[in-house]
From TrEMBL:
This is Membrane peptidoglycan carboxypeptidase. It comes from Glutamicibacter protophormiae (Brevibacterium protophormiae). Residues 39-225 form the Glycosyl transferase family domain. Residues 663-732 are annotated as: Disordered. The keyword Ion transport does not apply. Residues 329-600 form the Penicillin-binding protein transpeptidase domain. Pfam families: Transgly, Transpeptidase.
Amino acid sequence: MAAIAKTGLTTGNNIVSALPSSFEALPISEPSTILDSDGKEIAKFYEQNRQPVKLDDISPFMRKAIVSVEDERFYEHKGIDPQGIARAVVSNVTGSSRSGASTLTQQYVNNLLVNNQELTGAEESTISGQKDYADKIRELKYAVSIEKEMSKDEILEGYLNLVLFSGREYGVQAAAQHFYSVDAKDLNLQQSAMLAGMVQLPNVYNPINNPERSLDRRNKVLGNMLRAGAITKAEYDKAVKSDLELDPSKSPSGCIAADDNAYFCDYVTNLILTDDAFGETKQDRENLLYRGGLTMKTTLNSKLNKKAAKDARKAIDPKAKSNEDVFSSIVSVEPGTGNILTMAQNTTYDPAGGLGNTVINFAVERSLGGAGGFQGGSTMKPYTTLGWLSEGHNMWDTIDASRQNYSGSYKWKASCLPEGSVQTYSPWKVGNASRGFARKMKVDYGLYWSINSATVAEAAKIDLCSITKYINALGVKAQDKGENRTPTDFTPVNPSFIIGSEKITPLSQAAAFAAFANRGEFCEPRALTSVTDRDGNAYKVKKTTCSQAVEEQHVSDLNGTLSKIAKTRVAKGTINVPIAGKTGTNNGATSTWFVGYTTGISTASWVGRLKGQGEDRKENLMHGALINDQRAPSMVDSSTYAAPLWLDFMQEAVYDYPHESLGSARKAPVVKKEPSEDSSDSKSDSKEDSKSDSKKESSSESKSEEKESKSDSKESKSDSKSDSKKESKSDD
């Protein structure tokens, strides 16, 4: 009334007439939550921490306190309180302090208008102290309108869920949790009075920052309640003698509060923020995430992920000064679904940085918060074996691994390229770290000991596109290759990809090897199983998407060799279920791997450097370096850190999921020899075969096993350089 009088009655009437009879209140901001596969909360995201509750779930003391201090005639007026306005006018004219006259209904309207402006990005403001008379008139009209549409209890409930109490704590439930660690329904009298007193000036009456002011304000609210008849004298006397009784708790927003699950949390948020199913623009998607009250259920086994993080820290101590640029990562995928079960690393998720802190997720690609991948080393060799099998060859075939030099003009068959072949143009020297392997051997034997010259000899006899076909079908991408360092499909342009020169991500390798555990059926990795908003509306998320990427028998043949690697060279009798896997190490051991699996879980473990990935600088080399504040072995390979990390984790994890047979590898046919007329020739041939096939391999294997006891066969290092002039050294 006073506001209208000051602007002139005509102007006021014009404003009132121009306003619609009601306004559309946009949904109030609510936090979004990420849940694990069992429905346990992983993290919460909010601009305004608010947990709406029904009026019946708010303490009666709280309801009485807010009415007593903010609008004692709330249940009598119809949105506007003429007596309150008159009292405020007199107080403001005769007193030294300013007094407001807004009813709870008007305050509710004002908060709704502020919420609308925040959601739409409007520039005007209806915040107290910034309102002009037109704003006040609008507030009055809408208050009258809302009183016709809503009951008093509905208005009170809406107000108590909407109003700011402190910082980013909005609504009585969030405030009760923040200051007292209780639910709104359990607030006692003095707690209710303290919270009600905060509403007028949340920062000034914050009990943590200003306890004396807060206590004085609380007692005044208790006095109001006594005068209004809301409480008895006995209740007042008891409450006013109590202290603030604070028991504060924090509910931080974002992944920083997700502890061991933080990197998976970060991956999920990046999935939301890069998917137009959740909004046309990134700003729209951010608004939805921080204000839309989403419930995001995920595939994460948080219990298992906690162990993964613990094991990652055990492998590489994040607080050891020597480990400033040495990290570990472990990620698991479920065969048959693609569900990401774990995603952990040795560091703490903290944007402030410092020793042992980072927000970079080593398991995923750069666009989703990752590091851009790491050289795959010999974990890439199974794909060459699949190419070999697909062209009609066998695991028992003999190949000549003695060739270690290929000229720059050598033509590698590549039918998927326009020219049908590819050349390196510079000589390519393919080296093996361990001596005695530059000779003829069976394909199975070459893969088991991960001999570079054996893998390259296989590739030289087949079409490189047969290899890239499998890599791409199994979802592995070459990282940081495309425009703006985006992932790309593998191509045969640089043949050194066959022994791991390209960067790949641990997640993609875990998902690809999961297909080996699933009879060749590849399932795209997925993290979200459902996303719904506060009203129960469902958003589109990736479904389980699987396809037969590899022939089942070829997978069984491959598993026959990879099982021997996992059982005899990594687990060494500690896991008594069918397992398989492949080691991997690049030059300089700046990227070391073990990717292994059962039929129920596929896990990639990685240990290496983030910044100093290249072996061209001596200080980057992991061989003999200080790691975990101790001197590392002179020959670091996957058996040093990555395989033990995998083993620590999988020794327990395998029993949480199915662990059935990985198939039966075909065996070489038995060839019966015809009796020779010249028995001496036959004897000689037989002796020579025995010497070359049995004694020679047995001797080499014996020597290799002797080396393995020291450094797991001195794990031949894989060429991590695309420059074919560099000598490629194979991994184990």
